[in-house]
Design brief:
This protein is mainly alpha-helical and 146 residues long. The protein is 54% helix and 10% strand. The protein contains 6 helices and 3 strands. Helix 1 packs across helix 3 and helix 2 crosses helix 3.
Length: 146
């Protein structure tokens, strides 16, 4: 008898008590790999010997229970809610860029010369370089070139 068949029989015997368990809990009880326990339990679900009665944790680990039953749906975010949230973030980002960068116009294409003129200006708002940091960067670049 192979290890999988032995484990399948032991898992089936364990699950007959009707207590819900995750694949990780079953794997710990039998000192087996979680993937092997999950495969056995998934096969039991596919053949109708067990069902998924819920999900736990951040990774939505399936909770299995012996016996026929309806599988619990995977808890997902409401797609409409998620789409709405993404839309709000995009609108806020667009408004924020427009307020911070007056040159930000996403629908308009500029020539290279115009972009150079707009983004390489010597505005007083641009922070001045710290001479200590500039010298340290030069030393790092020079040291790496040798």
């Amino acid at each position: 008898m192979s290890e999988t068949q032995t484990l399948t029989g032991r898992i089936r015997a364990l699950m007959t008590d009707g207590k819900p368990r995750t694949a990780a809990e079953v794997a710990v009880l039998f000192n087996a790999r979680v993937k092997l326990a999950r495969d056995v339990l998934s096969h039991m679900v596919a053949t109708g010997q067990a069902h998924v009665c819920g999900h736990v944790g951040a990774n939505h680990a399936r909770v299995f229970r012996f016996g026929p039953g309806e599988n619990a749906p995977l808890p997902l975010l409401d797609s409409e809610k998620a789409r709405h949230k993404r839309g709000n973030v995009a609108r806020w980002r667009e408004a924020h860029h427009a307020a911070v960068d007056p040159w930000h116009e996403p629908k308009q294409r500029y020539s290279d010369e115009e972009l150079d003129r707009r983004y390489r200006c010597t505005g007083a708002w641009w922070p001045k370089a710290d001479p200590v940091v500039v010298n340290a960067m030069r030393a790092l670049v020079r040291g790496g070139a040798q």
